[in-house]
Design a protein that fits this description.
With 375 residues, this protein is an alpha+beta fold. The protein has 8 helices and 17 strands.
Length: 375
């Protein structure tokens, strides 16, 4: 394939305009383009209110090598399509099904990949399914009681389900894992634009449906997903993991019940808020390392003010609500920066413990709220 970079077009351009611009750069007719794949799209607002999109695009055409040397344009290069490769399977057959603790992003993707390779994983989640979770969280936001097991932190999809589904990262992706995550999200219902937008976004409302579809695929492939089931202890025999103990309410009687599930493969995908689980792991002398953390606050401001700053106009129109990123180095050398920026979003209560307050930000897919916020 041929890769073209820095293709600039007005923000209100048509799809046909992109194809014509590519054909002009390659010096071929538009109909000679066999396949067109947008790899990256970012907004250039340096000359606002004149706004442009900048594209990186991969194209299939006949006589590619000939086209590459035609004019020797530095914007044009030959590229090879690369994808993530699942590790080779071992030679020893597993005696038990793998256990995955938690159904946040780590647990869901781990479960899906194992299920697709025939391992029939068992996923254990202390919170409820995403459908039940939405009901409980909405009831809490409307003044109801905090559910300590199902809230903005705990439940299917993890904390990200109520944090807008932002998918940008500064981590390099040589193995194409990040690319695979985006491809899988689109497979299960996310908008294809997340594959190329500079700051991809799904939205809490759409993400809930995507998470549900992923769970259904895991079950279809022979996996098991158990909700409202908390891991209370790790079983260890001769310094090797041998399973877990779980606690759950009996569906018929409502009585809290304990069960032992045996497995020598246990994946801990427990997120950052399961402090009781971390305490259990500490008691079991599971090696853990401290990790640095940032302390911050969340600020909210009118979205039209951000649109004016970024676009040169208050009405975002088809561009959608504008976002931003700010960084600053203090005199002491400490970095101050914004993160989790939610255009057209909402500040929400994200508490998971009684008597403690935590806040988060989120947006729905349309990002149509009158305010923006960021941490």
């Amino acid at each position: 394939m041929i890769r073209l970079t820095q293709i600039k077009l007005p923000a209100d351009h048509t799809p046909e305009a992109l194809k014509k611009k590519i054909a002009k750069l390659l010096r071929i007719a538009p109909e000679e383009i066999l396949k067109l794949h947008i790899r990256k799209r970012s907004l250039d607002a340096r000359k606002k209110p004149e706004l442009f999109y900048s594209y990186t695009v991969d194209v299939s055409a006949s006589r590619e090598k000939e086209l590459l040397h035609k004019g020797k344009n530095p914007q044009i290069s030959l590229c090879k399509e690369e994808h993530y490769h699942f590790p080779e399977a071992g030679e020893e057959r597993l005696r038990e099904r793998p256990l995955i603790i938690g159904t946040g992003p780590a647990g869901l993707f781990c479960g899906l990949m194992l299920a697709r390779h025939g391992y029939r994983p068992i996923l254990l989640e202390r919170g409820s399914s995403v459908e039940e979770r939405q009901k409980k969280v909405n009831a809490f936001w409307q003044g109801g009681t905090l559910d300590l097991q199902t809230n903005v932190q705990f439940g299917e999809g993890g904390a990200g389900t109520f944090s807008d589904g932002k998918l940008n990262t500064l981590v390099k992706d040589p193995l194409k894992r990040g690319q695979l995550v985006l491809e899988l999200f689109t497979e299960f219902g996310a908008d294809p634009s997340i594959l190329y937008d500079h700051k991809p976004h799904i939205g809490t409302d759409v993400l809930a449906e995507v998470v549900k579809a992923m769970r259904q695929e895991i079950i279809r492939l022979g996996g098991t997903v158990r909700f409202d089931t908390q891991v209370t202890d790790l079983l260890v025999e001769q310094q090797n993991v041998s399973g877990v103990k779980v606690s759950f309410a009996d569906l018929k009687t409502g009585v809290q019940t304990e069960e032992t599930i045996k497995s020598s493969i246990v994946v801990l995908a427990i997120g950052h808020s399961a402090r009781d689980t971390f305490s259990m792991l500490l008691a079991r002398q599971v090696p853990m390392e401290e990790k640095a953390f940032a302390v911050g606050l969340r600020i909210q401001h009118p979205q039209n003010m951000i649109n004016l700053s970024q676009y040169g106009r208050e009405d975002a129109g088809a561009l959608g609500a504008a976002n931003y990123k700010l960084t600053r180095q203090t005199k002491s050398g400490r970095g101050v920066y914004t993160f989790c920026m939610c255009p057209g979003g909402y500040v929400v209560n994200a508490s998971s413990e009684a008597g403690r307050l935590a806040v988060n930000g989120m947006s729905y897919h349309d990002r149509a709220g009158e305010n923006a916020n960021s941490a």
